[in-house]
């Protein structure tokens, strides 16, 4: 980085906020505190409650931890720039944010794919669930879901680190890789191709796993009783909503980076560019059981064990239901 011509990038999207900086700063601060509170409550509950140390809850733990990671990579920097008069970010800080945000996005999709696979095993292979999803297998899957996106993105990121920058304007609130690349003195022809290949590497395997899991689940559910179908649906709905929520934000962010979105008003582009971090980080803790947190932590002592068990199996009770449902076939 010693031969870098430009030392700072100017984030031009902040110009439309200059008349409302104080109010927007307050909104972002409250959102960040809300994200930290919701996710840390889930993290502490799962960590401190041994009954919750099951694969599905471990994956939920990893999802919430990643959301703290992603929101911390985004919102403090956004708030700091809001307080600035020049809206400039040092190149090294910008490149650091690029790494954090891209690995957050990749890990989020990996964890959602793992959760889909867990639901497939719970519903379609209930008798073999604990054999297949052993603690050893769970640890290997968690390690793979963390290492895989980091190594894959690092290979592409190393190309960005080799660039020098002659332009300094980024039309966003934060740094993303392609916007940084556009400011380089010369853009290597292969970097766009490698970037597209990276998207396939980080999306296609997980997408195939999710599709396979839900195709198998839908086939099994057709053979079950209505009550069993209802419980299976209750198990899958939080994950499907999380997946849909994150996919909407990710598709827009990828589209905005790769294609011109000038036909949309600036305010809408800004909102949608923040969607993939902020909305999932707020909604996922609610979807994955925050409603039971107060009961589990502060309920009567005689009911606490029961409530913890309910929280543990609330999204896994389909294993028993499907097993009994199959016995009726």
Keywords:
329 residues, mainly alpha, Rhopdopsin 7-helix transmembrane proteins, 3-stranded mixed beta sheet, 74% helix, globular, disordered C terminus, odorant binding, transmembrane
Q: Give the biggest sheet.
A: 3 strands, mixed
- Output the number of helix runs: 12
Give the low-confidence spans: 297-329
Order of helices and strands: EHHEHHHEHHHHHHH
CATH 2nd-level architecture: Up-down Bundle
SS-derived structural category: mainly alpha
**What is the average per-residue confidence, as pLDDT, rounded to a whole number?**
83
- The domain tally reads 1
The CATH top-level class label = Mainly Alpha
Q: CATH superfamily membership, which one?
A: Rhodopsin 7-helix transmembrane proteins
Rg (C-alpha, Å): 22 Å
CATH topology: Rhopdopsin 7-helix transmembrane proteins
Biggest sheet strand order reads: 2-1-3
Q: Tell me the fraction of residues in β-strands, as a range.
A: under 5%
Percent range of helical residues: over 70%
The global form is globular
Say how many strands there are.
Answer: 3
N- to C-terminal distance: 66 Å
Domain G-protein coupled receptors family 1 profile: 38-288
Keywords: Cell membrane, Disulfide bond, G-protein coupled receptor, Glycoprotein, Membrane, Olfaction, Receptor, Sensory transduction, Transducer, Transmembrane, Transmembrane helix
Membrane topology: Multi-pass membrane protein
Protein name: Olfactory receptor
């Amino acid at each position: 980085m010693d031969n870098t011509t430009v030392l700072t990038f100017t984030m031009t999207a902040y110009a439309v906020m200059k008349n409302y900086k104080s109010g927007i700063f307050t909104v972002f601060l409250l959102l960040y505190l809300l994200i930290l509170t919701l996710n840390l409550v889930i993290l502490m509950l799962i960590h401190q409650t041994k009954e919750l140390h099951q694969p599905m809850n471990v994956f939920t733990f990893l999802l919430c931890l990643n959301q703290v990671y992603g929101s911390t990579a985004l919102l403090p920097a956004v708030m700091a720039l809001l307080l600035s008069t020049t809206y400039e970010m040092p190149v090294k800080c910008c490149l650091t944010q690029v790494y954090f945000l891209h690995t957050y996005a990749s890990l989020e999709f990996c964890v959602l794919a793992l959760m889909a696979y867990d639901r497939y095993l719970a519903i379609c292979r209930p008798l073999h669930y604990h054999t297949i999803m052993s603690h050893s297998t769970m640890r290997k899957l968690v390690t793979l879901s963390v290492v895989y996106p980091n190594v894959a993105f690092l290979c592409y990121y190393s190309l960005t680190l080799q660039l020098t920058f002659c332009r300094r304007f980024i039309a966003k609130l934060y740094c993303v890789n392609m916007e940084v690349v556009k400011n380089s003195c010369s853009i290597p022809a292969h970097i766009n191709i490698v970037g597209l290949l990276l998207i396939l590497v980080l999306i296609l395997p997980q997408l195939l796993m999710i599709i396979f899991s839900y195709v198998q689940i839908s086939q099994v559910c057709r053979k079950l009783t209505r009550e069993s179908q209802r419980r299976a649906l209750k198990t899958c709905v939080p994950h499907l909503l999380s997946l849909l929520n994150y996919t909407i934000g990710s598709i827009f962010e990828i589209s905005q980076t790769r294609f011109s979105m000038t036909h949309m008003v600036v305010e809408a582009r800004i909102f949608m560019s923040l969607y993939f971090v902020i909305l999932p980080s707020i909604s996922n803790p609610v979807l994955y059981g925050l409603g039971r947190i107060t009961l589990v932590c502060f309920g009567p002592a005689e009911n606490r064990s029961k409530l913890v068990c309910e929280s543990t199996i609330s999204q896994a009770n389909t294993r028993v239901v499907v097993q009994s449902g199959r016995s009726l076939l």
